[in-house]
Amino acid sequence: MEYNVSKIEKKWQKYWQENNSFEPEKDFTKKKKYILSMFPYPSGKIHMGHVRNYSIGDAIARFSRKKGYNVLHPIGWDSFGMPAENAAIKNRTHPKKWTYENIDYMRNELNSLGLSFSKKREFATSDPLYTKFDQKIFIDMFEKGLVYQKSASLNWCETCQTVLANEQVEDGKCWRCDSDVTHKDMAGYYLKITQYAQELLDDLKRLEKGWPSQVLTMQENWIGRSEGLEFDFNLSDESKKKLDGNFDKFKVFTTRPDTIYGVSYSALAPEHTIIKYLVQHKLLSDEKIQKIKEMQALSSRDKAVAQKEGLSLEIDVIHPLTKKKVPLWVANFVLIEYGGGAVMAVPAHDERDFEFAKKYDLPIIQSIANKKQKFDGTFATTEYGDMINSGEFSGLSSSEGKIAVIKYFEDNNLGKKVINFKLRDWGISRQRYWGAPIPMIHCQNCGLVPEKKENLPVSLPDDIEITGEGNPLQTHPTWKYTKCPKCGQDALRETDTMDTFFQSSWYFLRYTTDSSLWEEMAFDKKSSDYWMSVDQYVGGIEHAILHLLYSRFFTKVLRDIGMQSSDEPFSNLLTQGMVLKDGSKMSKSKGNTVDPDDIIKRYGADTARLFILFAAPPQKELDWNDNAVEGAFKFIKRFTSKVEMATPCEELPKIEHKKLLKESKYARKKVYEALKKSNEIFKGTYTFNTLIAACMEALNALNQQNDVAVWSEGYFILSNILEPIIPHVCWEISDRLFGLKNFTNIPLIQEVFKEDSIAIAITINGKKRLQTEVDIGLEKEDIINKAKEQAQKWLEDKIIIKEIYVPGKLVNFVVK
Ligand SMILES: [Zn+2]
Ligand SMILES: [Zn+2]
Asked: Ligand 1: distance of its center to the CA of 176 in Å?
């Protein structure tokens, strides 16, 4: 068969399009597989990371179809967001125009890869019909008490002119543009993800089998549950006086109550209300007040990297157990967001506290003894051990001590056990145009009122100009003026739009529903109950906490609202490795990108797919290699070059294995080994490289023989198992030889794996003389006769007294 790449690929892409070959079936009694690769942001062009992501997902979807599953394999566009506005500023286009033109372009690019997506369930999250239900879900959450408004000091990106969630700040920099993040006091809307913190943590256990452990650990740390003791530090009488009687105590939290006798000072965050009072009323020297103001100006990132700094507040608190005075300090390492912004400091057993105590010459008191890690005053010993210098608790181990100290505090009303989470509520307000408007209205009489659901969507105005300064919804001459849905008076629309992660937190549910229902509902419960959860999700590790945590949160919320039934969105997660070139990540700024369009034009989509799945296991990094691309192309050419050796048939040819020549038997064994490998890797390792290697070996083995039936069987099976990887050429071969009838579940047979001869030892009077190969299934008599012939040399002139055959092992002749 001539391998005319572009003719074959265009032909089948057209065929799939015209025949709706990959639409899911409506029969909900069939067993299903929901295979999903993370949807792309329409940035303009696809890159090699996309090719990898979608080739993996597509292979799994195509394999599942052949195994008889009803398969949902959709694609859409995560199409709101900042780059559209940046492009608008740069190119003087409209964000909407830019976005939808990109979608059209990239849809064609994905088409040219031959991906088996459902065409009828494609949507973009910026489609007004999607916004309608996005906003409805927002209002549902508001009505459930899961949305609230508050003013806070927020992460602010000056370049993007927007607020960022903590999850979007990476090492103090904006996740999108890499600028330094600063802080700004702003009002915004929050989703109560913290209400689900415990369930989000507990359910990670249910994902242990299907998710990479690295992702589970990252989520666990991000949720950051800790158990400990919360108690009050009472101020000394003189200190209360100093604060004009406005404060008498403050709360602290510790995860190490076993070290409480080692407390030698306490420290407050610079933003703590007591500090604010001291500064406001000038109760400290001008010099100290100046320093505190400097500390307050630091962002949390700067605090994290800054030298530990602080100063004495000239205030004392009372140790709750020893009743001794403990000095109170302000310290830049204490975070206002965590544990109330106050800590008890135990320098003997905490590195940070130790460093600070050394710097400011504060007392250091040992209260834990550990034989392996002896305390000598030169460093903090942080391991568990036994409590010492700890009054009635001395002698208890750290773990016993934790429980005993908490119990003592609870029994004496001094404090209580509390569970703390690092996870914060999710701030979703963005001061940008190209997003889903938050569907709320501010009324002077009624306060904050959601838009009526029948008025949704609240659409973006088209007549705006994006200048990069301020929020176009805020400055639009008419858009924000409206009537209150409750009392009908003049009112103002909210001009914030939603974080785009809101849209990507439920898009996988939208796909489960036939698009004919999309006008009426976000998604259909019966359909989502059938399709959810996603059986295999494929995407980059960079989404380990952002998107994957938010989607889990939404799934639980939508379950509690009654919209769907699953607890978790993604049963199995594959995080694919990066595509590198010359050892570093492909990026435009480094100038080391390879354009997928060029590769497809030159070699075809099948070669691009084969290379990318062959070069490395999907979870590992993949280094681009031009020679290997060439090699992939040559293999496909070789694969097509022998098609004429086979004869057309509609089912597997009947082959009498025993009658075949050795080479043909070996070829069959190799073909079935590849089939076996295919079944194995699709159970979840997805090591396509090993499967492709097995297919190459099988093709080589077929080439060493010329039995037509074995060739036909070989093509029947190989074009089946390679179809998920190089679909165009496999459909072409299958169409020519098998009328597309071989894309089905092919059962394994065992006879090809059996060895067909065994070695038998021949012994004379118990002494081994030689060894011979006999066919399996040969009768005892025949074996003995064969042995006699072979051993003739030793049997000449001898009388055989006895012939003994030990099946499968040896023949012994007793002679005289
Ligand atoms: Zn930015
Ligand atoms: Zn009103």
From this structure: 5
Tell me which ligand sits closest to the C-alpha of residue 492.
Answer: 2
**Residue for token pair 């409209």:** 94
User: How many angstroms does the Cα of residue 305 sit away from the middle of ligand 1?
Assistant: 21
State the DSSP code for 203.
G
Whether 3 contacts 22, CB under 8 Å:
no
The ligand whose atoms approach the alpha carbon of 449 most closely is 2
What's the 490 CA to ligand 2 centre distance in angstroms? 8
- The closest alpha carbon to 603, from 626, 624, 621, 580, belongs to 626
Q: What's the whole-number mean pLDDT along residues 127-150?
A: 97
Measured from the alpha carbon of residue 175, the closest ligand is 1
Give me the DSSP letters along 452-502: PGGG---PPPS-----SSS-HHHHSSSTTEEE-TTT-SEEEE---EE-THH
* Among the bound ligands, the one closest to the CA of 484: 2
* Ligand lying nearest the CA atom of residue 443: 2
Ion ligand 2 neighbours, Cβ < 5 Å = 443, 445-446, 484, 486-487
Average pLDDT over residues 401-419: 96
Q: Is the pLDDT of residue 11 over 90?
A: yes
**Cα–Cα distance for residue pair 469/798, rounded to 1 Å:** 110
Report pTM: 0.85
Cα of 173 vs centre of ligand 1, distance in Å, is 8
Rounded to the nearest angstrom, the distance between the alpha carbon of 702 and the centre of ligand 2 is 79
Q: Which two tokens stand for residue 80?
A: 């709101």
Q: How far is the CA of 184 from the centre of ligand 1 (A)?
A: 14
Average pLDDT for residues 374-401, to the nearest whole number? 94
Q: Mention every residue, 6+ apart, whose C-beta is less than 8 A from residue 765.
A: 812, 813, 814, 815
CA–CA dist 62, 117 (Å, integer): 10
Let me know: does 512 contact 524? Beta carbons within 8 Å. yes
Residue 809, phi then psi, degrees to nearest 5: -120, -65
Alpha carbon distance 453, 628 (integer Å): 56
Distance CA 415, CA 426 (A): 29
- The pLDDT score that the predictor gives to residue 301 is 53
Q: What is the mean pLDDT of residues 411-416?
A: 96
